Amino acid sequence: MTTERERIPLPVTGGLLDANGGTREALLEDASADLSDGIAYRGGAVERAMFALPFVTSMTMISFVLFWGARVSPFLTVLFVCGYVSYGWVKGLHSGFSALAFGIPFLHAYKAADWHKLGNDATQRAPVRDRFFGGVGRAYKETGPALVGDAEHTWRSGIDGEMKRGLTAKFNDIVHICVIPTYKEPLGTLRKTVGTLAAQTCAKERLIVVLATESRDSEAPGKVAELIDEFGSGLLGLRYTKHVLAPGEAVGKSSNCAWSVRCVKREYVEKRGLAPEQIMLTVCDADTYFDPQFMDCLAYNHVQNPKPYNATYQASETFFPNIWNVPIIIRIKAVIDSVGFLGQLASPFSHPFPFAIYSQSLRTSMECGGWDVDIIPEDWHHYLKCWFKKDGDFRVVPIFMVMGNDAIEERNWNEAIKARYIQAKRHAWGAIDLSYIVMNYLEKSDRVSFWRTTKLYMHAAEHHISWTLFWFTCMLGGLCSTWANPVLETYPFGIGLRMMTVIVFIPMSFACWFIVICEFYIRLFIIHDREHFECNTAPMWWQLMSQCQWFLMPLADMMFGSFAGLEAQFHMAIKPSMKYEVSAKVAKKKALIVEDASVPDSPSMYDRGTNGSANTAFNGKL
């Protein structure tokens, strides 16, 4: 039931919000019955065995390098260690070079473009870039090819009742709905995020913000009321949903998103009559800082996409906004991840996955069954669900605009490092989706290509298994395995495995230089004028001296990569369930800190009457 506290009136702004006249309550509490709550994991011996496979694979490779490999074959051991180290610096060089050579020019082009103007003039050249060095769609060049299947991608607008054909008509008919899952987030954090949305170039005409709250958060309605008072008049709409955790659901972003999107469909499609094709959904974290042109850029990319309903759109995410407020070991990982994301989006040879902030058409969400409710790492999982629902014809389309998320910041270094480790475990829990890939392929082997599925699996395994093993292989295997295997002291070539590992590791320094140059360039020339990006507050002498942080890269990789990943895989193997806790978060440098808040255990995927879930995995911020 809706309490009086939750009956927040919306300001009368005219247009779509007031289609039924008068003011409307901010709470969306009716959910569409068409989008049922999906369950990803169903149990069974094969699925349970697949949960254990990442841990078994990791331990087999670690034990091979440290103990029994040299006893079987010193040659194979040296070959494996040196090959694995070489693989690491090749991937590092690839990401760093792609970010520097392709990503940064794309960021410049996207920032300089006037996307609203481009959306209203199809004859202009646009800086739209795909991951294959060229433009996409007819809007790229005046003499370019016609948009494939344009007749299939028209819709009848729910606003004016007219059929929308062509770039300009579609562009101006798109309604953006941004869903922000939140649980006990500081008001200051939400204010900054909603503020960057209210600053969008299309905010008042075409942007609705939906705060997806949890019923356990009694303070949420009050925060929503304050945000409506402050930003309501600058947006097409500011609404909120209240998710009640149901049996079988996992506490977290995915179950909250599932409910919120169902409420959005009920309100704006079934009640207001909008076409699903004209609604673009964007899902983001509570501490997301948008480029002012992001929504217009997203609409432009979407309406000229030859396959607009077979795509998820991903911006270039960074952790630069508070980069100088976090411990150095967290900073180095934030820098590597930020530049690495850009490199993956820009490279034609990588397979990018969505991360935290992503967008897709509401029609796509409806066709794919919405978000599953027993999931923690919802971004990758939802992409995989869409991939199989579309029989493998689904991809990530890059939006080369910089998004900002805060790096983990706490009261002191110890708490910050602990919180970052918890977050790393939560990210590593995504390895459970390797079983999801296998199980879905077994169900759809007649419709999905074996080779495409294998490629998808290998890319996912590369993230969740290969990088987990890199520190163990390089540091322990290359430098320490000689203690357990004296034969490797001089094998090969009389110099030993330890020296061979050091020699092979040298090219990694070039990858580090690529990353350093990219980081400085993005901070100084791309996001220097962005609101809430305090990434250039440190004096230049300190920014230069702090590059000694790269000596801590092995330690950061050990803590937030190898150890966190291995612990996640271990829990996955023995019992894929754990209590979910929300960690403290700093809203501003001198702002209030929200204390840890425990939440109930989520039901298990095997026995709906017991506690725990395959993905209510780890302590971490929602």
TrEMBL record:
The chain crosses the membrane at residues 49-68, 465-484, 496-522. It comes from the Eukaryota. Keywords: Membrane, Transmembrane, Transmembrane helix. SUPFAM superfamilies: Nucleotide-diphospho-sugar transferases (SSF53448). InterPro entries: Nucleotide-diphossugar_trans. The keyword Transmembrane applies. This is Unnamed product. It comes from Ostreococcus tauri (Marine green alga).
